[in-house]
Amino acid sequence: MTQYAFHLDGGKCTGCKTCQVACKETYRLPATNLYRKVYSYQGGSWDATAAGHYVPNGVFGYFISLACNHCTNAACVENCPTGAMQKDPDTGIVWTDHEVCIGCKTCQTACPYKASTFNEEEGYMLKCDMCRGEVATGGKPICVIGCPMRALDFGPREELVERYGEGDIEVEPLPQDTTGPNLILTPHRNAQKSGVGTGSVVNLQEEL
Questions:
Q1: CATH number 3.30.70.20 given to 4-206
Q2: Which has the least CB within 10 A, 75, 167, 190, 193?
Q3: What's the half-sphere exposure (Cβ side, CA atoms, 13 Å) at 17?
Q4: Dist. CA 30–CA 35, nearest whole Å
Q5: 111 near 117, Cβ under 8 Å?
Q6: What span, in angstroms and rounded, lies between the C-alpha atoms of 37 and 11?
């Protein structure tokens, strides 16, 4: 089996959300559903001086563009009660069979990355399928093509590791690795380790 994966260069991502918008427009997703989300993680403070000016005190910030990670041990697949969540045996892509999905949200609860969202109108779960239709014809995911900074890449995991190294998936605001995510993340220079970060996600709720 060829396991496909994403690569994200955190040092190149500017948080422009072109990847997110390109995906949403291509698949005409409802207003409350996203396949890819761009997290803004920030920390530090601006301290007042005696002269009335403000100076940075450990101020930092970076962005992480995140979709489904098509995990090796996908919690959504393992916990789906109807078998709607499938992992393709040839590509490793995790996709949703809407014919049998009952919208119970078990996949959303089980996924540490909260990749699935509920489609209120249709009554089933929605999730990135790595543009498997495009991939099947030799193409790349829409988000990768759309990224103006070339912060995103896609391909067989082994090839991405050869190109970029193993990376580090355990950076804030992402959780510790429990499912074998197929995201090769090259962290931003200011990235903080999962669970010990001093910052927070500053996105508006409607952005997530």
A1: yes
A2: 193
A3: 12
A4: 11
A5: no
A6: 17
Per-residue pLDDT band at 13 (split at 50, 70, 90): very high
Residues 6+ away with beta carbon under 8 Å from 25: none
Distance CA 94, CA 76 (A): 9
Identity of the residue numbered 136: A
H/E element holding 156? Answer: strand 152-156
The mean pLDDT value for 82-90 works out to 98
pLDDT for residue 40 is more than 80: yes
Smallest Cα–Cα separation from 19: which of 111, 27, 11? Answer: 27
Q: Quick: pLDDT tens for 20-39.
A: 999 999 999 998 899 999 99
The domain spans of the chain are: 4-206
List Cβ<8 Å contacts ≥24 apart for 201-207. Answer: 201/39, 201/40, 201/41, 201/173, 202/40, 202/41, 202/42, 203/38, 203/39, 203/40, 207/37, 207/38
Would you say the pTM of this structure is higher than 0.85? yes
